[in-house]
Amino acid sequence: xxxxxxxxxxxxxxxxxxxxxxxxxxxxxxxxxxxxxxxxxxxxxxxxxxxxxxxxxxxxxxxxxxxxxxxxxxxxxxxxxxxxxxxxxxxxxxxxxxxxxxxxxxxxxxxxxxxxxxxxxxxxxxxxxxxxxxxx
Amino acid sequence: xxxxxxxxxxxxxxxxxxxxxxxxxxxxxxxxxxxxxxxxxxxxxxxxxxxxxxxxxxxxxxxxxxxxxxxxxxxxxxxxxxxxxxxxxxxxxxxxxxxxxxxxxxxxxxxxxxxxxxxxxxxxxxxxxxxxxxxxxxxxxxxxxxxxxxx
Lengths: 136, 151
Known about the structure:
The complex is a heterodimer.
Chain A lengths: L11 E7 L4 H11 L9 H6 L10 H16 L5 E8 L9 E10 L4 E10 L3 E11 L2
Antiparallel strand pairs in A: 1-3, 2-5, 3-4, 4-5
Chain B lengths: L9 H5 L9 E4 L2 H11 L12 H10 L4 H7 L9 E9 L8 E16 L3 E13 L5 E12 L3
Antiparallel strand pairs in B: 1-3, 2-5, 3-4, 4-5
């Protein structure tokens, strides 16, 4: 992990790339969460619902990727004080994702505000929001 | 509990505000942390600190009702196509692996809106506090669900 000590407004956060979302890990998360929704593990159900032919990733996983991106940049995810996001679209098994962000403000107390996002193929937004981190 | 898929009146909808959840507890178990880190690609830490997503997991697993029961409370069911709205996670203090947290919370707002394309829908927001064994609030998680109201 590498901590950024002197960020500036406008800095782009180093992107985190997930080359291919793994369907097997969705099954693990479904078991961990006790999530009975079959769209996360049953391709037949996904097809019947007209949602495509790949399992749908759990929304919290997508938020987790963004937190990982922030943690890599800030020197630890425990530096995230607040993150507020909206889920804009589904992520499917096999999708290539990029998580990124931009520093938008720096408070007198050292709190850094960032716009954050997660995008399929780096272009199609699936999650967007704002995060506040304390780097000091 | 209310009956599922019945479209509530404005008064019924607004009466949800302030409704407290039963609450409960959530243990941040080491095996669960390891597997979760593996799923989301987070590092396996050795300092006893859980990934901040555990603020969310603890809140949602410990607030005392299931998501289906939450939908029913809001006059809806999974068949109505409810959607996740916003998610806001405050991490005051990282959750500790091995600790058991108390979760409490309530519905904080319930509003009806009209969209040009989407028609009538309700947004119900709720806030959950994740409380450490010493009584300090470690995390506050605010979520909202969007309920389409098709007549």
